[in-house]
Structure formats: C-alpha cells, structure tokens
Amino acid sequence: MVDCLLAHAFVDDNGEFGNPVLVVIEPDGGGLPQDRRQELADRLGIPAVAFVRSPPARRTSIAIHGSYGLPIRFGGHPVLGTLEVLHHLGHTVEEIVPEAGPVACRRDAEGICRLTAPATWSKPWRHLQMASAAEIDALTGLPDGEDFTQVWAWTDETAGEVRARLWAPRIGKGEDEACGSASMLLTLQHGRPLRVLHGRGSVIHTSPAGDGLVELGGRCAVRTPAEEVTAAVERAYGRG
User: Fold this and answer.
1) Which one, 4, 5, 224, 226, has the greatest CB density within 10 A?
2) For residue 110, how many other CB atoms are within 10 A of its CB?
3) Better-scored residue on pLDDT, 235 or 1
4) pLDDT digits (tens, 9 = 90+) for 153-195
5) Half-sphere exposure in the Cβ direction for 51 (13 Å, CA)
6) pLDDT of 118-128, one tens digit each?
7) In the prediction, which pLDDT does 11 show?
8) Contact 192, 161 (CB under 8 A)
9) Residue 44: phi, psi to the nearest 5?
10) What is the CA radius of gyration of the chain?
11) Nearest 5°: phi and psi at 56?
C-alpha cells in the first residue's frame, strides 16, 4: 500500500476552506519518474500533488506537480501541507526540499505550519490593489487585461489585514483558493507582516524575515482522500 493523505493548507480556525495538496509517500526505492508523476497529477485534478521521497527525515526532498500539466518548483501550500502530513504520520521535519531549494519549516505550539523561503522563488504573480474588500468579493474573474494576478485590498491597514483573490487563466488555472506564494511577494513589497483573508475564507499569515526571505504560515487539516484517488495512486505504483 502507498501512503497518501490529503492536506488543506491555510484553513480557518474551524478547519474550513484551504488549498488542497495530495501528499504521496513514495515507496523506498520505488519512486515514479517525472513524466509519470505529472501524468498522475493531471489525472487526479487536485491543485497540487507532493511526492515525498522515502524515508521521510528531518531533511526531506519532495517533487511537486500541479494539475495543469506543469511541475511546481516551489509552492507555499504544497510545502506546508506536506509538513502537516508528515507531522500527522509521526515524523519531525526541519527542512523540506522542493526543486527550488531547501525550505526551513516548523510547526509551532499553536499548530500553525510555517516555512521561510525567498519570496522570489514564487511565480511572477502580479498584484492589483482595489478600493475595498466588497469590490473584490463581487468579482467573478480578473478585471480586463489582467492575468496571473492577485487582487487585494486593505481591510485594516494599521493591523496589516488584507482581502485577496487570485486567478491565472493563461495556464488553465481557475481561482486559487489560497495562494501563499503571491502573498509572500505582497509581503515583500510592503515590508510588513500581513494576515490575508484569501478566496472564500482561507487565512494566510506572512512576515518579512530579512534578505528577501518571507515567513509563510497557516493552519493545515489532514483528511483521508477519496477512494478513487487512493486507487489511482495504487495503480500508478503498480499496487492496484
């Protein structure tokens, strides 16, 4: 049996919303090649699949693949979701290594998963400031002429509270419920901690960490994948 669990990163205090990542613990010595990982991720249709190279350790390597035909060099929600799944399975992890490079990570005493990484590892997200949260809530897509864009507005500038949503239609990506990497870039631009209410209700915490680094944090919830997801993973590894 191949271990796989679904994690939602950036859930609210009730465990709702968040961005899903399927975390697959690959059999020791039996990892899939990149093209087959991508094929599986495309078939599953989950925003991200993180393939963990066995055995998990304090420094653990992963390969992240999106559901839109492309591998992901670095993604905030896949890394944090992987951290939460490994914690759930009893592993203590201090560093997760996606394609972009080593990412320091921790799970704090309040159960919030946190990572610190260069904000420039993020995709080249654009940012469009809007007048109010209500204006953002009313959107059904990006304003004309925008793509790969996080739209945002202050809800309490003094407290660093932001309302945000994001779309990337040119890569076939609909609305992203909770984009940590775009929020990292927004934090780098403003040079201050932010609490971002993203998508329908996800919550993202960010804070500058110096030298272009940003700490990204959020609560994560681990769930059992649907039976058809587990079956597809088993078949991909020749176990089904």
Assistant:
1) 4
2) 7
3) 235
4) 999 999 999 999 999 998 877 899 999 999 999 999 999 999 9
5) 26
6) 999 998 999 99
7) 99
8) no
9) -70, -35
10) 17
11) -60, 140
For the domain made up of 121-219, the CATH class stated in words is alpha beta
What residues does each domain of the chain span? 3-114+220-236, 121-219
Domain 3-114+220-236: give its CATH superfamily: Diaminopimelate Epimerase; Chain A, domain 1 (3.10.310.10)
Do residues 143 and 161 lie in contact, with contact meaning Cβ atoms separated by under 8 Å? no
> In terms of pTM, does the model score above 0.85?
yes
User: What is d(CA 160, CA 157) in angstroms, rounded to the nearest whole number?
Assistant: 5
| pLDDT at position 240 | 63
Strand 103-107 and strand 112-118: the pairing is: antiparallel
Give the tens place of pLDDT for each residue, 27-72. Answer: 988 899 999 999 999 999 999 999 999 889 999 999 999 998 889 9
What pLDDT does 154 receive? 99
> Is-contact 45 72, C-beta < 8 A?
no
Tokens of 82: 């992987």
Nearest-10 crossing angle of helices 180-190, 76-88? 120
Asked if the domains at 3-114+220-236 and 121-219 fall in one CATH topology, the answer is: yes
Give the integer Cα–Cα distance in Å for 240 and 58.
30
Q: Torsion over CA of 149, 154, 207 and 181, rounded to 10 degrees?
A: -10
